[in-house]
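Reviewers asked in the last cycle whether our approach scales beyond single polypeptides. To address this, we selected a multi-component target totalling 770 residues and predicted its structure end to end. The input consisted of the following lines:
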Amino acid sequence: MFKALLKKQFLEVFSFIFIDKRKGKARSAGEAVLIGLLYVLVYCMVIGSFYVTARGLCEPLVTAGMSWLYFALFAISALFFGIMGSSFSTYNSLYVAKDNEMLFSMPVKPRTVLNSRLVSVYLMSLLYSSLMFIPAIIAYLGMVKPGFLGMVLLILTPVVLAFFVTALSCLLGWLISLIAPRIKSKSIVTVIISLLFAGVYYFFSFRLSSILNSILAAPALIANALKTKVYPLYLLGMGASGDIVKFLLFALICIGSAALVYSIIVSGFSKSVIGGGSASHSRSKALYSEKDIHLGSSSSALFKKELLRFTSSPNYMMNANLGLVFMVGIAVLLFIKGGELRKLLIDADIFGSDMLALIACAAVCMISSMNVTTASSVSLEGKHIWIAHSLPIEPKAALLAKLKLHLALITPPLALLLAAVLTAFRFSAALSVLICIVSVLCVLFLALFGLAVNLKWANLHWTNEVIPIKQSLPTFLALFSGFGLLLLLLGLYLLLSKLVQPLEYLCIAACLLAIGCLLLYKLITGWGSKRFAELD
Amino acid sequence: MLKIDNLSKSYGTKTAVDGLSLHIRKGEIFGFIGHNGAGKTTTLKACCGILKPDSGSITVDGISISEHPIECKKRMAYLPDNPDLYNFMTGIRFLNFVSDIYAIPADIRRERIDKYAELFEIKADLAQPISSYSHGMKQKLAIISALIHEPKLFLMDEPFVGLDPKASHILKGIMRDICNSGGAIFFSTHVLEVAEKLCDKVAIIKGGRLMKCGTMDEVRGDASLESVFLELEG
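The resulting structure, written as structure tokens, was:
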């Protein structure tokens, strides 16, 4: 029984190798091997990138006799990676797995189902935490030649650590299962948490060298702090360095905490699964009242529908609009550091003010091009397309609602970014107006382009929304259309640079973009409307 | 009310509907019977403008669906066999959305939502997300959204699938009411007993071709509808 469940679990975890989710068909053996190898290659590449950091840390710390600190530092990173990578997948695979109900209707003990799922959670934890630990071990072996026992302890360290990662992931997954049914705007919360994780990741990535330098500047201080405040990390480091007693103590802590967490979740597992999110039932059910009747125009109804679609999907929000976060982030950065940047560029006299305006405008357009809301908006109609087709909705109105959403989302960050650029660089009034016009036209052009390519290559038969959002030709084309457009405009500038000044060139670019927008608008409202009406 | 003239539609090399002609008059409940893949859904989709036919014409109240789709759609409602509604909306939001599209005034939509939601017993669930609805509840919501603008022509694809007996009974009453007030119903079904009891006229389709059409007495003669259907199926 357990073996069968385990087999199913592995097939599920590695289904991306065996099943082409875009086509919904099984891959051939050759394709599966190729995809598997590709993933192994990517994994090895990530390990390789961490190896560079590991080598930088290994030599000074091992030489200073602080091998344990070296392993402890990597254990912290492995914990971070492991928990970040597996806590949400733990929640999904333990508590909201689609086959929970089916399995619970069979003569299988809930504990057996849980155990099979935990094995895959453990393997995921091991996979993620090894991303940090494998390069650390390789770098260490490059310097130290441990004996047989040392080698065994070294290899067993990530294996044992993964128990602790599993325990923390399960604990987090369990907490999420308690909180999730009570959260109203799950999508928004998911996006915020994902952005926070990404923020923390990028913060540490950007500051990695300064963090490493500060560690290497005072290793004894850090070693002392870790040893006194996080003693298990000291045990881990000493164990990995060859101390069997400390290793066993560390293993006891890891496996003990895993057992403790297991005892907590095992009792509530069947209850929370069979309860069908009992928490959601315990929450008072919102009732419809007459206040819920809202009168609106047909176009506002279509826009609201697009907005609801957008805010209901963390995938759509995160993948199609990550540029918005960058736009706001860069704007804030420019408001804070813009003066210094301006001084640096003007003092260095690299570019004249007019040329700087061109570059600033290109940069704004480039960042804006990372938003591709329209590029998957048609495909996302999916199996609901019959609603738009059967109701008295002009296809043009349905398409313009998608365009409006793109523009409504990007307008506030674009305004903020333009305000930050203009405040930072203090261009002349004429240049400022032109930068704004070109940027707005560029955004409009790219939104229209995204819509046009999605209409041309619409896919309504997806099984997972990630496919049209992330893995489709329209999204790819829309993402790179920004680069393409800027390359075109740059090429044109190089051709005309001897004939026109940057100010005049911005006027030409604005005219060209306006013509492009008009042509695309005509294309979408003409051919695009017919195409939308015929999509099936 | 609905006139289908020489309708044909193919998918690649497969002919789904082949030269079909039907006339559904005001006041008629018209049943459309056929085995799986006979071309019922394709015909219904073409009638409501979801599918573009290869040839033939369809008119609603004398208006061509291909030339004036919006005008036709304002007069009709469509209920698909599988009500895939916007899962990201609540029931009431979806009804508001449909009402906005048909520009139904607030007091009228309130009155109709209350009336039908109470009738189908889903008023207490209207504020819940559609994603939490069962198949039957989605079907009920789809029916309410279709009735909200009081269509003259109601096209339904297997409307009773997933409905509980009470809701089925209520829907049958509503269908009769629509016809009594000068509307028309064109619906497909596998349940021959329902067709026999409910329909004024039936059409039997096989392999995209019309096999038999007429009033219930004309089609079944002295036999039962089931035996006629099975005989035609061969």
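The longest strand of chain A covers residues 19-20. We regard this as preliminary and will revisit it once experimental data from Aim 1 are available.
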